[in-house]
Amino acid sequence: MEMLFKCRQKSRIVLLALVVTLIFVSLNTISEASTDNVINVKDFGAVGDGVTDDTAAFQNAIAQSASQKKPVFVPFGTYKITQTLNLTKQSMIGEMSAAWGADDVNMPVIKPTNPANSGIRLNKGAAISGLAFDYDQNETSSTPTQYAPTILLAGVGTRISNVKITHAWIGIDCVDSPEANTGRSSIENVFISKVAKVGIDLDYGWDVTTLHNVEVWTPNTTYNGYFLNNGTGIIFRHNDMLRVSNTFVFGAQVGMLFEDNENNAGTWGVLTNSSVDFCATAMKFVGMNKLTITGGSFWVHLRAFDVDTAFTELNISACDIKSNGNTAFYIGDCKHITISSSVINRDMGGYSNPAIHIAGGWNVVITGNYIKANGTGVIIGSGARRAIVSNNIIEVLGGTSVSNNGMITVVKDNININ
Length: 418
Known about the structure:
By secondary structure, this protein is mostly beta strands. The protein has 3 helices and 37 strands.
């Protein structure tokens, strides 16, 4: 019996040793395979101390990546770059598992230092992930340095993911060319912090552009409020079948701006669960836009929604729309707007602006909402051609529920609370 026990014990020890050996060999193999499958910028002389110019090392690594069809790998460090890095049908990766939304630096940092050159240009089929970009900016200055856009989109099918951009003048931009096509670009898990002028500017998206889990955030004390007084979180120009979800803008003059590009082409698509906070204006529409907006909150100081073009079509539902001082939802002109199942609030005292002002527009339908105002709930002006305001709960403090001077209008079945 004792002999049998010793044999079993010996067998277990041998088996355990074999398992440990196999694990060690496997890890070694994985490590070697990982090294073999990337082009490491440090193998080309990159230092990563934030002082040495690492541009040439990156350019050589990118060239090797193109010839060997392997991604460029950027280890931890801070890399000074003085010229634009160009990627075409290749990827550049850093720390894939880092918390890209963290305030602390926990990713490899690319530091562009030449204001005339972008940090990186993504041509067709290019992708970056797991990287941070940062600039030398004086946060107490009212005149931040006007660097070239950090990331420049210059082709179809690009991808930006798990990326942080700090202290940029413009975070992400597109090449300014009608011949360009930046469609099928995917921008996800991106944190643009302390930007000075524009977080993202999207144009020439001829086919399905996607933004998901993107945040543009600048405190109002940074640059003495420059972004709050002059900045725009995201600009959408020409984008076909735009898809935006879980995207947030904080502290801009305009949260999201929709305007035609130089060819009079606008944006059509969907926005889901996206929000704007602490901006002067949340959503501004100028041009030919056709959008469905579902979910999200839009809390601002002045106008939450500002629509003033005869070509805009909006279908809005399940949104929380609030303005402190100005009209929460202003319609100067439009083709068609529907607002339903939403909260529209303009209840701060000391101001007389309505919750909704329909100054003009061809077709406006406001139904099934909760509307609250410190003053008049809804004003339908003489420029409003056709408007329906029905089946809403309208709560007003010191004003009328609906003031109607429109052309062809239906105002009925609202619950009015004074």
